[in-house]
Specification:
heterodimer, A: 403 residues, Dihydrolipoamide Transferase, Chloramphenicol Acetyltransferase, 3 domains, 9 helices, 30% helix, B: 470 residues, seven-stranded mixed sheet, five-stranded parallel sheet
């Protein structure tokens, strides 16, 4: 029988295939989870409609498919009884075999339908080819399948739906809130991050007076640019100088992979929990286009219309909680496997003593920066935020960094 | 044991200079390691000195002799053909010597250090080597255990290497046995049965099971060929006792008693894992007594690898050679692995046998819906002109996907041709991949094509068969 994608939530029209929880040949019982799908709202497991044997997947991880799509083929138990019995006999005869006997050499492991060349690509990228579902004719695994899997793995490694600051949830007495979907996803990523990364957070004050003035001057010229866009650009400049914060630690390979593309995630406080859309290649974009993109992605996030590509591939994350008021600092949780995250807090007018001992009123914003202490040290982080503060304090300095 | 010992430092120490060991040594040297190869006896191991190579000199002798006897039809006339075992023995010695020298000079050219002695692990990174009268200690970064296997003897049998021989001594025999009884069903047993029959012995083969362990089509053809050659087969028989005197050997089976001039026993090998100190350093073993390894041939101690007959699987040099390279590459930091799903097996019988992939029995047991195509060489034009018309080529494919599952052949050239089957399986070929190309003509290769064509009942040189019979 064909197992199709059904509407599993309100207004769902399509879902992305996250991963398979079974493989062809597996025997499943009714209601056993078969695969995990993700909609713009949640992650869900698709259960098996009945007992049977998994024959073949009709979709691939990473693919977005509409409702009604056949996900996989399941042979019901009865059809399989016969084969199954035969299989058991074969196992029992195998057990008795003489380990020395000539011509009895067959391994019982699943046959890999891939050429030795393709197998090598998989091996070199740490992919267990026995788990790969081939897209080629007769289920053959192609080079392309492996390459796709490599990039899919890289994307999932950069967790899409978490953030440091968890929005206040509307709990009244004796109410239970379902702990699944996005909430559960957030929880999973948080736990993973905290258990993996030794976090270190430091705070910094940034004088944003000049930047605010500059923004209001721009506004007079009908150029409405948010202060966040400047922050993002300034961060990208700092990342260029301190690339260690735009990196991924690959412990098993014993390398820190320093990335030179700045894909900066922005925490958006959406109704069902935080979303982190990503602005790709900030290092190549103008402040103006960063501003436009932030605006567009925020709208999408609030309308729950973010596509998987909008939330994938982040290398650094910011969380601007300033507009919510209140907080003057936080110890945000890093989005594993990124190295660092910066939170911007409320801006307050403060009396500041200038170099010539005058007391002046300046707009001061606090920021918190969490970083992976395995990868970088405190001194580097302080230099990083110092540089950021300098660029923001005197926005004209940003001019010098124009390409 | 040794006080204040001085250890020599080495990148890689390989214990055992058989095919697995020397392939590993040369590949490691190619990859920049400083390699020391320790061999207790002679370079080339069992394969070269006592196994594959000597037995193949014998099977080749038999093949040549048989073809000379049929040479008359090609106009080659000779008064009488004599077979001189002494000359064959001399050729064997010369061949072995040449090949051994070849390995030694290759090792030298690759700067592989050769040490003659018995090695023993002292710890996870040190090895002691005892040569004639002195003892040295080596500290290594990596080690490969490639110590091979030794033949086992069934209970009640004592090998005297004169009248009762094992796989190491059968090819040292100095006279052609009058009446040779062979106990075993592995490839050496089959090869020796055929060779000695051709040399002039009366041959009886005793097998413990009901049949051979090939695809049943090969089992059937093999029995037919044996019968045709006058080789007697006793099935389902186990030796309970053997007595030898000056002139004869008496063999007690459960139900009968045989008397013969010589008994050759080929009943399996056991891994040489004793006296290596591997228990002491705690290398994990499998339940059946082999060294446990992963796909890179790495043991439970990550710097020590094991290859060949000391690891689980068929006792074949082909396995050891492939593992040796994989281990060498893994040690050099290259991602490498072995997979023996499609390890070919061959027997240099007359005609020879080549087999790879699933047999028909195995394919059915594993739940495949299969298609089978078989082409008898009696229908091959080239086989007809060679005068070698025994045998067939059989292919097994998956009915639905048309993927190749196995290829089994017995006949002229099978040992060389089976590589086509290996390739087909490794690259996941389907029927059309075989039907599309052109094939050298005239040749036995065409028989492989016709076997695939036979699946769809489209073999050209094979008349249509009636329903109900393949």
């Amino acid at each position: 029988m064909e197992v199709k994608l059904h509407d599993i939530g309100e207004g769902m029209t399509e879902a992305e295939i996250n991963c398979f929880l079974v493989k062809p040949g597996d025997i499943v019982q009714a209601d056993d989870p078969l695969l995990e799908v993700q909609t713009d709202k949640m992650t869900a497991e698709i259960p098996s409609p009945r007992a049977g044997i998994i024959r073949e997947f009709k979709v691939e991880p990473g693919q977005t498919v509409p409702i009604g799509t056949t996900l996989l083929l399941l042979n019901e138990m009865d059809e399989e009884m016969n084969r199954n019995n035969q299989k058991q006999t074969s196992h029992s005869t195998k057990g008795e075999r003489d380990p020395f006997a000539f011509a009895e050499k067959k391994s019982s492991s699943k046959r890999v339908l891939a050429s030795p060349f393709t197998r090598k690509i998989a091996r070199e990228n740490g992919i267990n080819i026995e788990k790969v579902v081939g897209s080629g004719p007769s289920g053959r695994i192609t080079d392309e399948d492996i390459y796709q899997l490599i990039s899919a793995l890289q994307e999932t490694a950069v967790a899409p739906t978490i953030n440091s600051t968890v929005a206040p949830t509307n709990t009244s007495k004796n109410e239970t809130i379902p702990f699944r979907g996005r909430r559960k996803q957030i929880a999973k990523k948080m736990v993973n991050s905290v258990y993996t990364i030794p976090h270190c957070t430091h705070f910094e004050e940034v004088d944003v007076t000049s930047l605010l003035q500059f923004c209001s001057e721009l506004k007079k010229r009908n150029q409405n640019i948010s202060i966040t866009a400047f922050f993002i650009k300034a961060l990208s400049i700092c990342l260029k100088e301190y690339p260690i914060f735009n990196a991924i630690l690959e412990e098993e390979n014993e390398v820190i992979r320093v990335l030179h593309e700045h894909h900066i995630g922005i925490a958006i406080d959406a109704e069902d929990g935080l979303m982190v859309p990503v602005i790709q290649n900030v290092e190549k974009k103008s402040i103006q286009s960063i501003h436009a993109e932030v605006k567009q992605l925020t709208e999408k996030a609030l309308e729950n219309k973010l596509a998987i590509k909008d939330i994938s591939g982040g290398t650094f994350t910011i969380s601007n909680v300033g507009p919510l008021g209140g907080s003057f600092g936080a110890t945000p949780i890093i989005q594993h496997p990124e190295v660092a995250l910066v939170s911007f807090h409320k801006t307050k007018k403060m009396p500041v003593v200038t170099e010539d001992d005058q007391i002046v009123i300046r707009s001061i914003m606090n920021l918190s920066m969490s970083f992976d202490h395995r990868v970088a040290d405190g001194a580097t982080a302080v230099r990083f935020t110092n540089r950021f503060a300098a660029l923001i304090q005197e926005p004209k300095m940003l001019l010098l960094e124009m390409i | 044991m040794v006080v204040g010992e001085l250890a020599h430092e080495r990148d890689l120490i390989i214990i055992g200079g058989g095919p697995g060991g020397y392939h590993a040594a040369i590949r490691s040297a190619q990859l920049g390691q400083s390699v020391t190869l320790i061999e207790r006896e002679r370079l080339g191991g069992v394969c070269l000195n006592k196994g594959c190579i000597p037995s193949k000199v014998f099977t080749m002798g038999a093949t040549r002799l048989a073809s000379h006897r049929k040479a008359d039809q090609y106009g080659i006339e000779s008064e009488s053909i004599q077979f001189n075992l002494n000359k064959l023995q001399a050729h064997k010695e010369k061949t072995i010597h040449q090949l051994r020298e070849g390995i030694a000079s290759l090792c030298k050219a690759n700067k592989v250090e050769l040490i003659s002695g018995a090695a023993f692990f002292l710890s996870e990174d040190r090895i002691g080597v005892a040569t004639d009268d002195h003892y040295e200690v080596y500290r290594f970064k990596h080690a490969i255990i490639a110590t091979g296997s030794s033949p086992t003897v069934p209970a009640g049998v004592e090998i005297d290497h004169k009248r009762i021989l094992n796989i190491w001594s059968i090819t040292t025999i100095e006279t052609i046995p009058e009446e040779l009884v062979i106990y075993g069903s592995d490839y050496i047993a089959l090869e020796m049965a055929m060779a000695f029959k051709i040399f002039g012995s009366r041959v009886t083969l005793i097998i413990e099971k009901n049949d051979f362990s090939f695809d049943y089509a090969i089992n059937r053809e093999l029995k037919r060929v044996f019968k045709k050659n006058g080789i007697k087969i006793i099935k389902n028989a186990v030796i309970s006792a053997v007595f030898a005197d000056e002139n004869s050997v008496t063999i007690n089976l459960e139900k009968e008693e045989l008397t013969c001039s010589h008994l050759f026993v080929s009943s399996g090998q056991k891994p040489n894992t004793e006296n290596l100190g591997i228990n002491r350093i705690g290398i994990q073993m499998t339940d059946s007594g082999f060294i446990e390894i992963n796909k890179q041939c790495q043991t439970s101690i990550s710097t020590i690898f094991a290859i060949g007959d000391v690891t689980e699987g068929p006792v074949l040099a082909a396995k050891a050679i492939r593992q040796g390279k994989a281990a060498a590459e893994a040690i050099a930091g290259i991602s490498s692995e072995v997979d023996f799903s499609f390890l070919p097996t061959v027997a240099h019988t007359l005609p020879p046998i080549g087999s790879v992939g699933l047999t028909e029995q195995e394919a059915c047991e594993q739940g495949y819906q299969i298609s089978v195509g078989q082409f008898p060489l009696s229908s091959s034009g080239f086989a007809a002109l060679t005068g070698e018309r025994d045998g067939f080529i059989k292919v097994i494919t998956d009915k639905e996907s048309q993927l190749f599952l196995g290829m089994h052949m017995m006949g002229y050239g099978a040992v060389e041709l089976i590589t086509s089957g290996v390739f087909s399986l490794e690259v996941a070929a389907r029927e059309e991949d075989w039907l599309f190309p052109a094939y050298p003509h005239p040749s036995i290769n065409e028989g492989m094509l016709e076997a695939v064509e036979a699946i769809k009942k489209q073999a050209i040189h094979f008349p249509p068969v009636k329903d109900g019979k393949r």
